[in-house]
Every structure is written in C-alpha cells, then in structure tokens.
Design goal:
This protein is an alpha/beta fold. 45% of the residues lie in helices and 12% in strands. This is BREX-5 system phosphatase PglZ.
Length: 716
C-alpha cells in the first residue's frame, strides 16, 4: 500500500496536535529527534503554524538562555534526556514530541501502522543510520509522489534501489546485504514473484536462481514454450496497463555496466538453460534473446553450418539480426564484434561466389567501377574484414568461434581473394590484347577539360587530390561525408587513371590543359609525362595550377595558408606513403587516414562554404593477402627504369622477361611486345625495392590500380 502523507505533513500534524493538547494557550513544544535528521522539516512545519523555532547546537540547556514569550518549538537533535528536571515546566504547560525520522516515516502509512513499524525498526537497528535517513527523506519529502511500503522497505534494505529482482539481476552478490537484511531481501524477492528463492538463505544461491529466472523470462518472451521449464521458473503473465518487458531486458537497458553484464549473461560457465536450448528445434526463433551462452553457441554453430552449405545471403541476414540485438543490449563487446565480422564474412563470400559463378567477361571498367554493383565491393569487403581484426581473441575460449573464425576469414581474404585478383587480371589482359581497350571512358588526363564549365564558372571550388585513394576507400570517404554533411549533394563516378598507375604519371595527368595536350613519352629510356611537350615535374605541376588561378596547398605544410581563396587544390599524400613503407597493419592505418581526410574535408567545406568540391586521386593500389608467395622477377640489365610492375628502356631484348614500354602502341605507351600478363598478375613483380613491401603496390593494370572513383560535392 502507498503512503498517505509526507514527512512534512506528518511533522505539521504532530506539532499541531501537541499545541491543541497543551494546557497553556501559548505553549512550548519540545521535539526530541534521535539522530537529528528532521531539523529542516520541523523548522518549516513550525513556521507554518506560527511558532518560533529554536534548535540546540550543543546542549539542551541552551534552550533556557531565552525563555519563550510566545508559542515556540524547541528542537533537540538527540534522543530524549533523563535530565527531565530541565523541562518540567514544558511538560506541565506545553508538550513533548519524541519522533526521529524512522518513527515519523512510519506515521506516513496511516492505513497500515503495524507493517509500517518495520521502517522505524530499520532505522533504529541500522549500522548506517544516515543512509537509511537519506532514503526516508528522499522518498517521503513529497517530491515525485508517495512510495509504497514495500518499495520503501526495498530501498532501505538495498541502499536506495527500489526493485529487488532487478537489483539482484544486475549486481549479483557484490552488494547483497547479509544477516537479517538478506532474509528481508529474500522475502522481498518472493513477494515480487521470485518463487525459486523461497526458503533460500544462501546469497549465491539466491543470485543464481534469480538470474536463471530472469533468463527464462526473456526466453519465454522471445517465444520459448514455458512448459519446457520447471514450474517455479515459469514466468507469470504480466498484468496491468502498458507494455511489459522482461526484468532482465529492463536492467540491461538502464545499466551503465553493460560490458560487465555481457560477461555474466554470456559466460560459458553460466549456461542457464543448456539442456533445454541444446535440444530446441530452431535456435534462430530465439535470436533476439541476448542472454545465455548456450543459445549464443548454438546460434554460431548453426550459422557456420549454413555458411559451409553456401547459404551466404541467409548468413548475412542472420548475422545482421544477431549483431543488432547484441549491440543494442551490450554495445561494443567481443560477442557484438564477432557477429559484425560475420556480416562481412557472409557478404564477401556471397560476392566472391557471384564472381566465380558468373565468369563475367564484359568491359572490365564497367564491371569493376559500377558505383552500385561493381566488383570493387569485393575489395571493400576484404578491407573491412581485415580491419575488423580478430574478435575471437577476446572471447572465452569455450566459444566455438575461437576455433573456426580464423579459418573462415583466411579462406576468404587469402586464397579466394587471390583467385579473384588473378581472374580479374586475366580478364584485363584479354581485353587489352583484343585492342583499343577503355575507349569511351572518362580518363583522368581529361578531367580539367571535361569539367571546364564548372571549374571556370566563377564559383568557389576546392580540389582534394588524395594519393592512392582506391575506389572502395573513396566510396567509404563519400559515405562518411554524406553522414557528416547531409545537406550536400555527393555524386560518385568512375574514371580511368594514367597507365602505368604510378604517382608520377597520375598526378601529372591531373593538371590544367586540353585533353590532347597530355602525353607520356619514352625519352632516353625513361617514361616522362608531358603537357604541351614539356615534362611535368612537381614544380611545373604547381605552376600550371597557379597559372590557372589555383591556390596550391600540400598536406602538412607548416601553415597550409590559402584556404580563404576561391579556388584551392589540396594534396594529401598519406595513404601512398603508408602503403609504401609496408607497415604490418596498413589496412587499419588506411582506415584511420580515411577518417582524418573526412574530418579535414568536412571542416573545410563547412567553414569555407565552397560551391563545389571534388575528391580526386592519381591511382589506386593492390593489397595482397598477408601470406602470399611473390614471383620475384629480375629485369634485363639494360633496363633504364624499373618499378615493381613495369620496366622502361630503349632497344630492350624482346625476349627479356618484363614489360616493354613504347610511345606508339595501342595504349599510347605500351607497345605490341608488352607482356600484359605481368602487368596484370597479382603475384608477379620486378625486384626493385626488395620484397618486404609485397602486400601493397601499384603500377600495373589491375582495376584496383587504374579504375578510380571521383567524388563531386555540390550545395543542394
């Protein structure tokens, strides 16, 4: 039953009754408060009744320093004293109230004084009276309604917590009371329907059975037939108005200890309903129940069976659903990360299978660079899978994923991905050998001519030229900007870079001028890029841009001045430099770089208010599996220029192993004797810098290197 009055109301009533019962018309009321927690309440009630208020600071004798002339309330924050002679006159002419906060709180429950006496004894018997007094004051001061007697008893026993079931579900034994308070808690649990703890007095047993009941309630809520549970664990149907939810779900939605509780409710040693769940027909019926390791393990085992059976689309759907539930419940924990990676695994497997089954021999640029459906998504899936790491390392070793996940991951990002790269390379070689490839595509060296209308329109324009921004990373960057600046219109389109896909040629192509003025020629055994017959060096590239009115800024320049101008070209070189150094975890570093680039672009677009912006790149790159044997080729001794994917030189032996580059062939600079198979083979490369940097390279003609994703950003 709820309280009928507040502490201030009861104090008002007590003083008013004492005045009415006093022999004198202007009495002094003496209030003894054992503990001294009612001072403010008694003061306010006194003022409301027109009484002067005088409180003891050290000894009750202080009250005698000034005899009262009008009605007054004397307040003593101690238990009543045996020195009654001090106040004989008050007893004869006024009145005495002996009420500490526990007694006054019991008077708040007028309809059940007998049961409410437990509140008084709880205060009097407490080792920490201050904590009990604070609870009584907060609950009965009139703010936020009046509590029930049971709710108040619970808060006293549990130091302010108002739900005994949820308290045990969350805190276990760590904050459980002992002795008489544990007995009181056990009674409160039973009163709240926790039948399994009836008659139990051991703290650990009480916790285990309460948690087992909480898991059972959630399982039933998700569809488990409650008849398979023991009678005492079968949850009663919820009654009352409103939508009810399992107690454990309520706990996990409110607690700040989600990660800690994940280790409790997904702990393999706490398989709450193992015998029932291991024989349940379809565990995916219960996928939205995120508690009990037995269910988690069965879901993973069934998922891997479906994966090995080739049901990749179903696996992706199931993994997404499980990930969403665990993420909503626990946030970022190893179990959540596991299912997040399972999504990537299923997605990649499905894309690779689609590639293997179709055997598409169409235009390789369209095949790879279609923004919606291109096979660049395979590279994206591989990249994401590698970046997501090894979540199984943080799982309990009993989890079945700890023995299976690495094999699943490796089979995709090692052997099957390498097979895909090889197949794609063969397709490129066939298309080039067929003659006149990539006709009708947008070529990077035509960018300034093709976009002349916008670049010279008088609008403010920013060019963000990012070295080695592969198609999939450009898409990730576009998605990041869409999320951060939704008011902008962001379009993606495919372009073909300059071959071979090296920085020297790629950046030279991204310079102002007619599309007919750009060329690559073989001069003295070395390939050189030209505009209007002049070799493009770093200095000349900057000059060409500045002559066209562009402010030229390079990342990490000391000041990066020039952002206030209307046309800015900004060069970011981090990705290529990171890959070239072959750092062990360069995928993770690339991911960080994309985040950094996104922040810079969003900052500049937001602050400078450009009318239009482009994100461009000079080339992409190939990232090979971690474990791959490279076929290390040795170029002929008279080769003038040797990179990892091509060599250049005049009068080279036609039978020499390698790639011969000339100026009059069908790609403009690859002559008829060019060994395209080496340019497109992912595991063949020339010895130049040695093989420690084998995982990351460019310079050939795999689509990952030369099909680029240019991003156009405009104000809507």
């Amino acid at each position: 039953m709820p309280a009928t009055k507040t502490l201030p109301q009861c104090a008002h009533d007590a003083i008013e009754s004492a005045i009415d019962e006093a022999p004198d018309e202007e009495p002094v009321i003496l209030w003894w408060d054992d503990g001294g927690y009612l001072r403010d309440i008694v003061r306010n009630a006194s003022k409301q009744l027109g009484c002067a208020f005088q409180a003891v600071e050290q000894t009750p004798l202080e009250l005698r320093t000034e005899a009262p002339r009008d009605r007054a309330v004397w307040y003593v924050p101690h238990a009543s004293s045996d020195d009654v002679d001090w106040f004989k006159d008050v007893e004869h002419t006024g009145n005495v109230i002996e009420q500490h906060i526990g007694k006054l709180a019991a008077r708040c429950f007028e309809t059940d004084r007998l049961q409410a006496a437990s509140i008084r004894t709880a205060y009097e018997d407490a080792d920490d009276r201050e904590t009990v007094a604070k609870t009584l004051y907060e609950e009965l001061n009139g703010d936020g309604g009046l509590p029930s007697l049971q709710g108040l008893q619970t808060k006293i026993v549990l130091d302010g917590h108002d739900d005994p079931v949820q308290f045990v579900l969350e805190h276990g034994t760590e904050q459980l009371p002992s002795g008489d308070d544990l007995t009181k808690l056990q009674g409160l649990l039973v009163d709240n329907g926790m039948t399994p703890v009836d008659g139990e007095h051991d703290a650990q047993t009480i916790v285990d059975r309460t948690r087992r009941w909480g898991v059972a309630e959630w399982l039933v809520d998700e569809g488990l037939d409650k008849s398979v549970l023991p009678t005492e664990y079968q949850p009663e149907p919820h009654t009352g108005i409103g939508v009810s939810r399992p107690e454990l779900r309520s706990v996990l939605s409110k607690t700040e200890r989600k990660q800690e509780l994940a280790r409790v409710y997904l702990d393999p040693t706490q398989r709450f309903w193992h015998d029932i769940l291991r024989t349940h027909d379809d565990p995916w019926d219960l996928v939205d129940c995120p508690v009990d390791a037995s269910l988690e393990h069965r879901l993973w085992e069934e998922w891997t069976r479906s994966f090995y059976a080739g049901d990749y689309e179903q696996c992706a759907t199931q993994a997404k659903r499980r990930h969403e539930r665990l993420n909503a419940t626990y946030g970022d924990v190893p179990w959540t990360e596991l299912w997040d990676q399972a999504i990537d695994i299923a997605t990649l497997a499905n894309e690779l299978e689609t590639w293997e089954e179709t055997g598409d021999t169409g235009d390789v640029v369209k095949l790879y660079g279609d923004v919606e459906d291109g096979t660049w998504q395979i590279d994206n899936a591989v990249f994401n899978l590698i970046v997501s790491g090894e979540p199984e390392a943080a799982l309990p070793e009993e989890h079945p994923a700890t023995t299976k996940l690495d094999d699943l991951r490796s089979s995709l990002v090692e052997s099957r991905y390498l097979d895909y790269l090889t197949d794609l390379g063969e397709l490129v070689a066939e298309q080039i050998d067929a003659g006149s490839p990539f006709v009708g595509e947008n070529h990077v060296h035509q960018f300034f001519a093709e976009e002349q209308e916008h670049l010279q329109s008088g609008q403010s324009v920013a060019l963000f030229i990012v070295d080695a921004l592969r198609f999939d990373l450009a898409h990730e960057l576009a998605e990041s900007i869409r999320c951060e600046l939704p008011q902008l219109e962001i379009d993606e389109s495919k372009w073909v870079s300059t071959l071979p896909s090296d920085t020297e040629f790629g950046k030279a192509a991204l310079t102002p001028g007619s599309k007919f003025s750009f060329n690559i020629e073989l001069q003295d055994g070395e390939l050189v890029p030209e505009r209007n017959g002049r070799k493009i060096t770093n200095y000349w590239r900057q000059t060409l841009l500045e002559n066209e009115g562009w402010t030229y800024i390079v990342q990490d320049d000391e000041y990066e001045s020039g952002w206030g101008q209307s046309r800015v070209a900004y060069y970011w070189n981090d990705i290529d430099e990171t890959g070239e150094t072959e750092l062990t975890d360069f995928e993770e570093l690339f991911s960080d770089r994309i985040d950094a680039i996104s922040r810079i672009i969003c900052e500049k677009l937001g602050n400078s208010g450009f009318d239009r912006a482009y994100i461009l790149s000079d080339h992409g790159f190939v990232s090979l599996p971690r474990h791959v044997d490279i076929d290390d080729l040795h170029p002929p001794s008279d080769a003038e220029k040797v990179t990892r994917r091509w060599i250049a030189g005049e009068d080279l032996d036609e039978d020499a192993p390698g790639v011969l580059l000339g100026e009059d062939a069908h790609l403009g600079y690859l002559n008829d004797d060019t060994k395209i198979s080496i340019l497109t083979d992912p595991i063949q490369r020339f010895r130049n810098q040695g093989l420690p940097d084998a995982r990351f390279y460019h310079g050939g003609v795999l689509p990952q290197e030369f099909v680029l994703n240019f991003i156009t950003i405009t104000q809507e």
